[in-house]
Design brief:
This protein is mostly beta strands. It has helices at 2-16, 384-391, 418-422, and strands spanning 22-24, 30-33, 54-59, 72-77, 88-90, 109-111, 127-132, 142-149, 156-160, 164-171, 174-178, 181-185, 189-193, 199-203, 208-215, 239-242, 253-259, 262-268, 275-280, 285-288, 309-311, 324-328, 331-333, 350-357, 371-374, 399-401, 404-410, 415-416. Bound molecules: fe (ii) ion. Fe (ii) ion (FE2) is lined by residues 345, 347, 351, 380.
Length: 444
């Protein structure tokens, strides 16, 4: 009994300090206990688990995946996750899974920031899918969703069998209770929740909005750095995993699961966040994008955006990735005799480009909260007016850009939802700026 009381005090003390503790690293073997002595010594499935807990294995990769890719953790919890009742269908609203309503479009599609008007929803109810590709049935592809919330998830937990979730808040701080412990996130940070891991999103203010990327494919890993060497981009040490923190609460809780695009609801008589200790390599993470170590030219031209890769979901060596996550942080833009804007290009992959904060960016991208989808080989680049300004720029000294952009690339074209197409925030004349380019040939 004292142990349980102490554990509650531990959780309180941990959060009351104003700074949650985390463990650092990515793909480590972690070990954490909220009550001293909760972790079994030298084994994971003893006949009797310390403190009367239950041992439960959660895997995130095939059993025989290579060591550096294998993900699994043992959780030691007050009750096992097995549920004796029947799950009932649940209406997931605008949180969608392929196939979607609108086929991939050749023109870019662009949304500006969504405000808080007309929202009365928790994180799960306030999800609206913009686009998606692939299929969770085949474990390939990625989806992107807006989220807006005005209240915390109460006595409700969610877990997603279809894909891991990358939550990128753009406004409002979040407290995310997971089976593995508490993660707090503010704009400029991102939170990665593995498939199958239960979580609950709480708001620390009156409103929160942002983006959620759902990866149906190969779990996100740190990309190889190649010729960059052993340091740079998103360093493993900057990823933070929670320490064990639990609720010993006998309250009815709705547990919602998404499986193959369908939602299911079960009611259990206690909080599912009852993991007192855990050990292993499967865990949620958070990452502060301001820590991204950006590379760039010191002579001329623009390196490929792969230099901004923070997380990779590999797919096909030639055709492209399943879902690579690029972070373009505040940085110096340097280049002799080089256009400071990104150039015109047509890429083999589909680009899902968003602005988390800062700006305005000098081309055509609204500051703070805009997102655009450009399907494979869709031609894009600076609009005529900013292009002319950049071409005439007399001073090419280094410039500091103060925005944070997240770009996800996938080899698969993105379908869209009708709900996203109908949003008033979708820019209707998005391609109008790509006219009026000056013809200079042959006189230069
Ligand atoms: Fe692009």
């Amino acid at each position: 009994m004292n142990d349980v009381a102490d554990a509650k005090q531990f959780k309180t003390a941990n959060e009351a300090s104003g700074a949650l503790r985390y463990q650092v690293g990515f793909g480590n073997e972690f070990e954490t206990e909220a009550v001293p002595g909760a972790l079994p010594k030298g084994q994971n499935s003893p006949q009797k688990v310390p403190l009367g807990l239950y041992s439960e294995l959660v895997t995130g990769a095939s059993f025989y995946a290579p060591r550096h890719l294998n993900r699994r953790s043992y959780v030691f919890r007050i009750r096992p996750s097995v549920f004796g009742g029947e799950a009932e269908p649940w209406d997931g609203g605008d949180f969608r899974t392929p196939p979607l309503d609108v086929p991939p479009l050749p023109n870019r599609v662009y949304w500006t920031q969504r405000k808080d008007e007309g929202v009365d929803a928790d994180f799960l109810e306030g999800l609206l899918t913009l686009g998606a590709c692939g299929s969770p049935m085949m474990h390939e592809g990625v989806a992107v969703h807006f989220f807006r919330a005005t209240k915390s998830m109460e006595n409700r937990a969610f877990h997603n069998s279809d894909g891991e979730l990358l939550i990128v808040p753009q406004q409002g701080d979040l407290r995310i209770m997971t089976e593995f412990g508490v993660i707090e996130a503010e704009p400029c940070e991102m939170v990665l929740i593995p498939r199958g891991v239960k979580f609950r999103v709480e708001l620390k203010g009156a409103f929160a909005r942002g983006l959620v990327y759902e990866n149906y494919g190969h779990p996100w890993v740190l990309p190889e750095l190649g010729l960059i060497g052993s340091n740079g981009n998103a360093n493993a040490i900057d990823f933070e995993a929670p320490v064990a923190s639990f609720e010993d609460l006998d309250v009815e809780t709705q547990v919602i699961q998404k499986l193959a695009g369908r939602f299911w609801s079960s009611v259990i008589d206690h909080s599912p966040f009852d993991v007192v200790a855990w050990r292993g390599s499967l865990t949620p993470y958070k990452y502060d994008m301001r820590k991204f170590v950006s590379m760039g030219t010191s002579t001329v031209d623009h390196p490929d955006p792969s230099i901004f890769c923070a997380l990779a979901s590999p797919s096909h060596d030639v055709s492209g990735c399943n879902a690579d996550v690029m972070i373009i942080p505040p940085r110096w833009v340097v280049g002799d005799n080089t256009l400071h804007l990104p150039g015109f290009h047509r890429n083999a992959v589909c680009e899902i480009s968003s602005l988390v904060t800062g700006g305005p960016v000098k081309d055509d991208f609204d500051p703070n909260g805009g997102i655009r989808i450009t399907n494979n080989w869709g031609a894009h680049g600076p609009e005529a007016k900013p292009f002319e300004a950049a071409r005439a720029q007399a001073n090419l000294d280094p410039e500091y850009t103060d925005f944070i952009s997240v770009m996800v690339e996938t080899r698969y074209p993105m379908e869209l939802t009708q709900a996203a197409m109908d949003l008033k925030e979708r820019v209707r004349d998005v391609n109008a700026g790509w006219t009026g380019y000056v013809k200079r040939f042959p006189n230069g």
